[in-house]
């Protein structure tokens, strides 16, 4: 079945940039054609939709999520209590929420029991419908390290290497490593070094051997440097960055996934989240923004992620993350790029997704309004396609005649 949507604005995140009066044609797999309205050819289509001057862009990717975490004030407490079945149910429910928010791909950076890997497999086998999932399985942490309630604990190069091989054997698309302490784990400090440079390198080498990528949770500056020198693909958070850390990221081509929204959702929740979280985030929000601005201005590659699953960080807040990035210096087009083509590049799938180009998979979202003028237009989701399949359509509202009830 071939679908054409015309009379639309296309934000391609690709070589064509923005096409203000255009069309796109796709089948149940890939993009067949796109361009200006007056260049539509005579190809017969099965469905033609008048976009009414709305906007189409590539499906968004959230590069930092935690499927199975319930966004509660203390999600690690919840993780420790949930069994594998409940974790799986939560994961599937959240997958639907991401789709409805226009997020057609998620990069999952930690779920207990490797449920995210099983969920990805179920989607690929057609058992359930959901977003594209790039799954890390359980993170690798030092004994007692950040995130240990959902992680595999390992100490020393040999144990970390074995844990990495176990994740890869389970089918992980990437490895998640904890280079520093974190906010949510009681008894760890965000700036403290955890996995060493040598331990991180041992995992990065294993991933590279099988063409997989790596990510490192890194809040403190020395932990960031260890992770970059250790060969990770992405730094998650990067809350404290000095000039040396930024230079190292530029030298190694390391991506930054800042998750600026995460700490801000916790910092003002006194008497709601545990006190130790409030204490840790008290000075982090502004420091994080400053580090982000410096990295952006220096030319560090930035991919967007929300850290969904952490307290009050519900699936679909990626647009709110993009709005903060815009406040800190990015243009709306750059923010969209961070959530599309750059995001695809950091998972090495930019040949298939991340931009609107002929031959790429038809992961598309149709939104009402112009996100180049107001980024929150990305929340006005009309339709979501994944691989050309309509995954979500905004319900139509039918007003009933006076005295009657619709439905």
TrEMBL record:
<dbReference type="Pfam" id="PF01979">
    <property type="entry name" value="Amidohydro_1"/>
</dbReference>
<dbReference type="InterPro" id="IPR011059">
    <property type="entry name" value="Metal-dep_hydrolase_composite"/>
</dbReference>
<dbReference type="InterPro" id="IPR051781">
    <property type="entry name" value="Metallo-dep_Hydrolase"/>
</dbReference>
<dbReference type="InterPro" id="IPR057744">
    <property type="entry name" value="OTAase-like"/>
</dbReference>
<protein>
    <submittedName>
        <fullName>Imidazolonepropionase</fullName>
    </submittedName>
</protein>
<dbReference type="InterPro" id="IPR032466">
    <property type="entry name" value="Metal_Hydrolase"/>
</dbReference>
<feature type="domain" description="Amidohydrolase-related">
    <location>
        <begin position="55"/>
        <end position="390"/>
    </location>
</feature>
<dbReference type="InterPro" id="IPR006680">
    <property type="entry name" value="Amidohydro-rel"/>
</dbReference>
<dbReference type="GO" id="GO:0016810">
    <property type="term" value="F:hydrolase activity, acting on carbon-nitrogen (but not peptide) bonds"/>
</dbReference>
